[in-house]
Amino acid sequence: MVAGSDSSFSSATRPLVAMDKLVSLCAARGFIFASSEIYGGINGFWDYGPLGVELKNNLKALWWQRMVRERPDVVGIDTSIVAHPRTWEASGHVDNFSDPMVDCRACKKRFRADQLDDAGKCSSREGSSEHDLTEAKNFNLMLETQIGASADATQSAYLRPETCQSLFTGFKRVRESSRQKIPFGIAQVGKAFRNEITPRNFIFRSREFEQAEMEFFCHPSERDEWFEYWRAQRLQFHRDIGLNEGRIRNRPHESDELAHYANAAVDVDYEFPFGWQEIEGVHDRGDWDLSQHTKFSGKELAMTDEATKEKYTPMVIETSMGVDRTCLALLCDALDEETLEGGDTRTVMRFAPKVAPVKVAVLPLSKKLSESAHKIDAELRKRWNVFYDESGNIGRRYRRQDEVGTPYCVTVDFETEDDKKVTVRERDTMDQERVPLDGLDAYLHERLEAGS
Ligand code: GAP
Known about the structure:
With 452 residues, the protein is an alpha+beta fold. The chain contains 13 helices and 23 strands. Helix 2 (50-69) packs across helix 9 (323-334).
């Protein structure tokens, strides 16, 4: 009997593994590592490796499936990162999208005035309890770039700080071309950029990240209902991707913490090793964005109700998921260090199969079996992301798959030729079962696609 091997073992009942262990496992196994690592990295930028990109793509595909494909009332788009600069004047980002910042006169480091606990890292503090900090100044978080080749014709522009503004500027075109009627939503997944003063906690707060956002346009009389509907939908999504119920919660914003565009907001928080933190926001943006873009562009974005002839500007309920933060929550939630009988520790990523980067590993016991193992591998690859590994001790190969969260290992042995069967090992229980080759696909399908 293996201690803690029960597959119903829930992450809320075990402590989360420390962040430094997760960060080093992510680098060592190719999930996520520092951008431009050979140059010493660049603060606030991260690269996803072969396993990280699969995890992230699985998450984005599940989001797209739930938010776009399954819904006749939501359409998806994909827009440019650089928008007309007037967009950001209209949206309020030029004037309002800033954090208060202070500098330490002694060590020259910069901190967010509202996160002065960070100043614990300030070297001027060593040996003294005093900080020599400047007055707080507002620092705009948008990353600026120049477009155009000739010196006199260059124009400043911004890398978008949120993906949603083009869902507002494209509102009329998308509604008319897709023949949608209010209420309906527009969704997209894409990169956003913020010049964060203090990027930290691995991929939690970075300067380049991905958002999965949906703007739902409704009649003013229905805004409260839709806000509540989307709040519940989005919380459920995080349960459905396998995050432990005990580590997710909704947290409504106090009126003094609302963003400049929001009338009401509720976060989905996850309990990270560094505390409860937001992974998604659901916002009632009212008619702020459409009204502002009407004012700045001169193009009317209000609607006329066909039946009543009432003219109104739709209200917007927004759902905004941080893709990287949700990946981090999935990684934290999955990582387990299990003590085996005899005292050994087994590191296991207990991902739900639907988010697991690799679904199946094919492991021939000997290189002499590689021909038949390659055939099985090629067959399974038609459907799933498969990892093939024929070198080294089988126990160590299993452990490597446990560490990256592969739900099933298929072992090809010397009997396979004769009995046309393989051994399938399950990650959480480590139970092994002999499965006929002609039923392997159905066996894995039943287990991998369950509940998806
Ligand atoms: N359009 C609304 C909007 O952008 P937000 O609360 O500023 O709202 C939404 O951001 C989500 O984007 C957050 O819940 C978070 O998951 C993610 N996010 C924001 N800033 C981030 C950063 N610097 N690094 C990683 N993710 C970030």
